[in-house]
Amino acid sequence: MVDLNILQKTLGIKFRDISLLEKSLVHRSYLNENQGVESDSNERLEYLGDAVLGFIVAEKLYRDFPDYDEGRMTRLRSVLVRRETLARISRSINLGEYLFLGKGEDTSGGRNKSANLACALEAVIGAVYLDQGMVKTRKMVIKLLAEEWQKAIKKPAAIDYKSRLQELIQSREQRIPSYQVTGASGPDHIKTFSVEVRLGNQVLGSGSGKSKKEAETEAARQALEKIS
């Protein structure tokens, strides 16, 4: 059994109900191999933590940068709450060491998988919120994000919206989105293209641009905003 006191010290949080922290670290694979364990996986806490994290980041961006428009804040939020960012933070606090994993998941490198680490961090945030409330959760999140925050503000990363949308859709639906040109206007040297990104018959987003690639990127960005 791992020592959760060390993790609590790292987070700066002393849980009233330690079972919430324990639950936030339980991967589904652990339950599949330990049928007698009376616990849920961390997926519900992950769902809650994702929402809490998004709110804290959005609120801080709103308060810290009154001159930023919605689009700029949205792009920065996307950088700060994406899987890669959360996984780096998780590695910095050795969160993988505390995960309850099935043997198969563990031996396949599950403690260092970005998906597991990002989900666990969101679940921990959800657990802290339920146990401590928003004020302490906000303080913890801002502390954990401090280094990534400075990197994002100083040099915002270019976002590959198409790759991110495909990754998200594949993880949820086991399918990939497709792009369809719906129109083109203007003379050849200054054409404007319109594109829709679809999942089957469902339109996820639409965009326009001076090239098909630019229009597809904008359609993917809009789709991600709707899904988020």
Overview of the molecule:
61% of the residues lie in helices and 11% in strands. It is built from eleven helices and three strands; from the N terminus they run H-H-H-H-H-H-H-H-H-H-E-E-E-H. The chain is globular, with a radius of gyration of 20 Å. Helix 4 packs across helix 9 (134-154) and helix 6 (83-92) crosses helix 8 (114-132).
List keywords for this structure.
single chain; 228 residues; mainly alpha; Ribonuclease iii, N-terminal Endonuclease Domain, Chain A; Double Stranded RNA Binding Domain; 2 domains; three-stranded antiparallel sheet; 11 helices
Overall residue-averaged pLDDT value = 90
Query: What is the number of beta strands?
Result: 3
Structural shape = globular
**Residue windows where pLDDT falls under 50 for at least 5 positions:** none
Give the C-alpha Rg: 20 Å
Q: How is the largest sheet built, in terms of strand order?
A: 1-2-3
Please count the helical segments: 11
Largest beta-sheet characterization? 3 strands, antiparallel
Roughly what percent helix? Answer: 55-70%
CATH topology of the largest domain: Ribonuclease iii, N-terminal Endonuclease Domain, Chain A
**What portion of the residues fall into strands of 2 or more residues?**
5-15%
